[in-house]
Amino acid sequence: MTTMRVAQIPSAGAPxxxxxxxxxxxxxxxxxxxxxxxxxxxxDMFAKEGAFPxxxxxxxxxxxxxxxxxxVGEGVTRLAPGQRVGVGWNGGYCxxxxxxxxxxxxxxxxxxxxxxxxxxxxxYAEYMVAHSSAVAVMPEGIxxxxxxxxxxxxxxxFNALRNCGAQAGDTVAILGIGGLGxxxxxxxxxxxxxxxxxxxxADKAELALRMGADHYIxxxxxxxxxxxxELGKARAIIATVTHxxxxxxxxxxxxxxxxxxxxxxxxxLEVNPGMMIGGSYTVRGWYSGTAIDAExxxxxxxxxxxxxxxxxxxxxxxxxxxxxxxxxxxxxRVVLSMT
Length: 339
Fold this sequence. Notes:
Quinone Oxidoreductase, Chain A, domain 1, Rossmann fold, seven-stranded mixed β-sheet, six-stranded parallel β-sheet, globular
């Protein structure tokens, strides 16, 4: 084989088209992956709609990529052909700039605009090439279709929970039971937190409890912060929603020195300084993570049985898969299968 199928965006805002392209060569420091599955994430809209500066088209999106190493470039020693691997949002880092030297690889100054499937071609394809620093090794015991969404939708709440300051036995709330939230509830429960799920409507209660929540709060039925206060308040709230007022509404339910971890990209967020001072609260944004964080996410998920709820589409139906995801009707992740 010398060619591959890809689902590419010919220009900003245009529908996907399925085309044949040459299988890419592998440069030094790079890894070529034969893709098995790729998640369709809401952040793919940055590529689809041209909502990120400096994009070039045609462009292949996709940053929840799972496959097998097909070839490695010169200088790559950590990875070898035949290994099962994954690639997430973080497209690599230089290891030499000041943030990297301080361990903040996500803030790499040289590679800060290297985003899988946005600033270079991603996983809506039968093959892709990634920087070796972006590649996570997959554990045994987890299927490619299940693993793909974990590289973004799973990694983000998993990593936020690891860094929220709560300890096993503490109360942690997951705000929003959607693509990220249904995984966040599972992770929180498996990590040993007293887990409270908060979402709009009574219809999400059964799902939230099935995912592992100890309590469910319907934010439409009353004041969610008051309900959280009745439960003793939360050491951390993991906000997966993209609605600023919904985040603001739950903040009084934080325990002293509690943290609101903002995962959803809301347009704005209103915070009461007096309330923050009085409770010594922290509002913190959380980036998804790098390859080593992805490896931890995948290992934890395989060990503890955390799995996404997926709807699977073939690669040739990439446009339908994307539109289904954007409609908000998917329950809860959309995944492209290459086989």
